[in-house]
Design brief:
- It is a single chain.
- This protein folds into 2 domains: 162 residues, NAD(P)-binding Rossmann-like Domain (Rossmann fold, 3-Layer(aba) Sandwich), CATH 3.40.50; 94 residues, ProC C-terminal domain-like (ProC C-terminal domain-like fold, Orthogonal Bundle), CATH 1.10.3730.
- Helices cover 53% and strands 13% of the residues.
- The protein is built from 12 helices and 8 strands.
- An 8-stranded mixed sheet has the order 3-2-1-4-5-6-7-8, with helices on both faces.
- The radius of gyration is 21 Å and the shape is elongated.
- Pfam families: F420_oxidored, P5CR_dimer.
- It catalyses: L-proline + NADP(+) = (S)-1-pyrroline-5-carboxylate + NADPH + 2 H(+); L-proline + NAD(+) = (S)-1-pyrroline-5-carboxylate + NADH + 2 H(+).
- Belongs to the pyrroline-5-carboxylate reductase family.
Length: 280
């Protein structure tokens, strides 16, 4: 396959859904020149204002006709809510073709169930990006059904590399990836809320507390990336016996901070499994 960005496909991409992940993908695809905007279609069920906004911002074709999007697309991206997925996909039975690549960002719904709903033996790739895709920094897990060929993997990888990093995994691992990186930004935001709040409570100007907190989080992430050292080792290096950091960490340990984070991630993964099971 060519390395030219515009050669990602000679066909069309269609999105069913018009939420934040779709906009992030549109931004990445258009800005990086992966596909001309006139070969991209977006559909949703009832929000024409949202569709007009995406059409104006990215130059894509916006329509409420999901059937036309499905018929005309070589790559069909499913970005609908899990509760709407069964009805929406069963409506497309007989429309989706075996030579179409279907990419799903629907949480908890397996490739086999998507294929069953569509009534088609087509290549299906299931993914789990996160909301950091809006700034091109998503961590996306990706898994494929048996009909997926190498060219399909390359196409999906290029699409999601436009909004971050991509990791191909076994499908059964997508639930824990959902809990870890799919829901993960919310845990970081929760921590940032608490750090900012502590600064403000102690008398700092709220904007200063925000900037100090964000730079601290960015700096810590870069230390982990650049040094490639274990987080436990970096934590030890910054923790002097009897010092301020140790005093703060002792409070976190008393509140079972690590146990709480672990439990949150595992519960989110469990919820992903529950969401998928209710459709079986």
């Amino acid at each position: 396959m060519s390395n030219q960005a515009t050669a990602i496909t000679e066909g069309r991409i269609g999105f069913l859904g018009a939420g934040s992940i779709v906009e992030a993908m549109l931004s990445g695809i258009v800005k990086k020149g992966l596909l001309p905007s006139e070969r991209i279609s977006v559909s949703n069920r009832n929000n024409m204002e949202r569709l007009k906004q995406l059409a104006n911002d990215y130059g894509v074709t916006a329509t409420q006709d999901k059937f036309e999007v499905a018929r005309s697309s070589d790559i069909l991206i499913l970005a609908i809510k899990p509760k709407d997925a069964a009805e929406a996909l069963q409506d497309l039975r007989g429309i989706v073709r075996s030579d179409q690549l279907v990419i799903s960002v629907v949480a908890g719904v397996s490739t086999s169930l998507i294929g069953e709903w569509l009534g088609a033996e087509c290549p299906i790739i299931r993914t789990m990006p996160n909301t950091s895709s809006a700034v091109g920094l998503s961590a996306t897990g990706l898994s494929a059904n048996p009909f997926v060929q190498e060219e399909h993997r390359e196409l999906a990888t290029k699409l999601f590399e436009a909004i971050g990093t991509v990791y191909e995994v076994a499908e059964e691992e997508l639930d824990i990836i959902t809990g870890l990186s799919g829901s993960g930004p919310a845990y970081i935001y929760y921590l940032v809320e608490a750090m900012m709040g502590a600064g403000a409570t102690a008398g700092l100007d709220r904007e200063m507390a925000r900037q100090l907190t964000l730079q601290t989080v960015i700096g810590a992430a870069h230390m982990l990336l650049d040094t490639r050292e274990e987080p436990s080792l970096l934590r030890q290096k910054v923790t002097s016996p009897g010092g301020t950091t140790q005093a703060g960490l002792e409070v976190l340990e008393a509140y079972q901070f690590q146990e709480a984070v672990t439990a949150a991630i595992l519960r989110a993964a469990e919820r992903s499994r529950e969401m998928g099971a209710q459709y079986q």
